[in-house]
Amino acid sequence: MDVHVADHPLIAHKLTYLRDKRTDSPTFRRLADELVTLLAYEATREVRTEPFEIETPVAATTGIKLANPKPIIVPILRAGLGMLEGMVRLLPSAEVGFLGMIRDEQTLQVSAYANRLPEDLNGRQVFVLDPMLATGNTLVMAIDYLRTKGARDITCVCLLAAPEGIKHVESEMTDSDIPVKIVVGTIDERLNEKGYIVPGLGDAGDRLYGVV
Ligand SMILES: O=P(O)(O)OC[C@H]1O[C@H](OP(=O)(O)OP(=O)(O)O)[C@H](O)[C@@H]1O
Ligand SMILES: O=c1cc[nH]c(=O)[nH]1
Ligand SMILES: [Mg+2]
To answer: Given this structure, which CATH class describes domain 2-209?
Structure first.
């Protein structure tokens, strides 16, 4: 599995404010949006393109454009929604599918409560958005589900990850011939006994949208 940790002072700066418990929801949403735009730069490095003939005012030339079928962006509800606009801004022609997943805060097991995706993901590049990769249970379930729909090219964009979560996703991928890439803002120290990332930023969904 290919794990790319973004190493950029602007990302580190924005993550610091995102983590700060004094940061209010509007600011948190703005920072998440800005961060995904920076991470998307790396996540889309291998986005499929095709040649495109144009004429500038000076000469004919061959550029490139995004190839068809266009990529599909899949935010994992709720917190992944906070990353959607920033990603769509860079890939405006992408389609968007949705996966709703929630982890039980006691058992840390995940259940899916919603999905709205194209029936066949074969041949599509899929970008999964979820700010937090903690135990990895959510991402493992999401990747499994996308594979059952035919996805063979999956890139996950996360803001923070725990080393335990990365290892877990990696261990689930070992038998797989399907490459999965993870692009993450930073890898934190560890998980605590409640399955929260340390130092982390708390509950991303609650900080974006309020405590439910
Ligand atoms: O790696 P894991 O241990 O599975 O944890 C990560 C998941 O936890 C959070 O979702 P949550 O269940 O809190 O739902 P929410 O986004 O609706 O708040 C987060 O947004 C991830 O989806
Ligand atoms: O630290 C964590 C772990 C899981 N989900 C979150 O929102 N935060
Ligand atoms: Mg939550």
So the answer is: alpha beta
* Per-residue pLDDT tens listing for the chain (212 residues): 899 999 899 999 999 999 999 999 999 999 999 999 999 999 999 999 999 999 999 999 999 999 999 999 999 999 999 999 999 999 999 999 999 999 999 999 999 999 999 999 999 999 999 999 999 999 999 999 999 999 999 999 999 999 999 999 999 987 777 889 999 999 999 999 999 999 999 999 999 999 88
**3-class secondary structure, 187:** strand
Exposure string over 135-174, b if 16+ CB within 10 A, otherwise e: bbbbbbbbbebbbebebebbbbbbbbbbebbbebbeebbe
* Predicted complex ipTM: 0.98
Sorted by where each begins, the domain ranges of the chain are 2-209
Q: Is 203 in the pocket of ligand 2 (CB under 6 A)?
A: yes
Ligand 1 binding pocket, CB closer than 6 Å = 76, 78-79, 101-103, 108, 110, 130-138, 165, 195, 203-205
